Amino acid sequence: MPIATIAFATALMALLISGHLARQEGAGNPWPNRLLAGYFALFGLQQLLLSFQLQAGDIQLGTFRVALMLGANPIAYLFFESLRTQGPFRPRPRFFIHFAPLALVPLLALMGMEDWLDPLLSLSLIGYAAWFTYLAGRGASQFAHLRTFASTARRWLLAFAVFFAMSALLDLIIAAQVNAAGAIEASAMLQLVAPTLLLAVSFLLFGSMGDSSVFDWLYERSLQSSARTEREPVAADLMVRIEETIKDPKTYTDANLTISRFAKRLSVPARSVSIAVNDGMGLTFSQLLSQTRINAAKEMIGSSAEESKSVLEIAYAVGFGSKSNFNKEFKRQTGMTPTEFRRSAND
User: Fold this and answer.
1) pLDDT tens digits, residue range 270-297?
2) Of the four listed, 23, 37, 102, 152, which is most buried by Cβ atoms within 10 Å?
3) Taking the complete model, does pTM exceed 0.70, yes or no?
C-alpha cells in the first residue's frame, strides 16, 4: 500500500478519535479530554498534510506539517500534566516554554533554513518520548490521586513514549530520503514504520468507539468530576437497578466490564450511572465494581465448598484480570491478603 494512502488513513482515524473525545467531554474537569482531543486533531491534520506532501512533493506542506506537530507535542505533555495535577488543572505560564520550538518554524522558513525543520521536529519527539519514559519509570504513585486509574495513566505514559518514538523514526526517515533526493515511497523502513503507526491509531480508534476500556477510564474520571460539580437528584429506582445489576454474577465476573458497558445494560447514559454511584454511595463506578468483586471473593474464600480453589482461580472467577491486582485490592479493602483471610476464616 502506498505510504501516502497509509498516512491519509492514519489522519482520518486520528481525527475521528479527536471528535469522539471532544464529544465525550465532561463538564466538571474537561481539561484531560480537551487536551487529548486537541493532540489527536493536530496529529491527524499533520498526517493529512504528510499524505498530500508525499503526493505533491511540495516543501511548503512540509513546513506546515512540522508546525502542526511542534504544536501537538506540548499538548500531549499538558495532557499528562493535567492527569498528574491533583485538583483543578490550570495552564501555568511556564508551560508555554514548550511551544518555543513552534515559534522557530516561521523564523527558520524566513531564513531559508527549511532543512532544519525536520531535525527540530525529531528532537522534539525524541525529547518528549524520553520524558514520558522517565515519568513512567517513576511508577503509578504520581497518579495516586486518581486511585483506581493510576496504573492506567502510567500505561498511557508508556504508550505515548512508544508512539512518539515511532513518530520520530518516521520523520527521520522522511528527512533522510528528502535530503538524499530519494523516493520516499521506496523506503523499506518507511514501509514498516508507517503501517505500524496506522495500526496503533486504529487500535485507539476501535477501542474508543467499541466496548473496550481504552478511553473509558478517562470518561469515568471526567464524569465523576462532573457529578461533583453538577448535583442532580438521583432516582431511587436507578439506584436499585444499579445495585441489583452490579451484584449479578453475570455482571461483575465480566473482566472487560466498564462504566459504558454497564450503562448499556441498564439502557441509561454513563453519566447518569456515574452521578448515581457517586452521590448515592460516595464511590466511583470502578470502586463499586472492585468492592463487589472483593465481597464475592471473600464469600468464596470462606466457603468450604470452594476450599480446593486457588487464590488465582478465585481472582479470575470474580472478574479480576491478574493476581497482583486482586491481591492489592483485597488487602486494601480487608487489611489482609487472600491467603491470610483464608487462614483466619478456617481458624
Assistant:
1) 778 888 888 888 888 888 999 999 999 9
2) 37
3) no
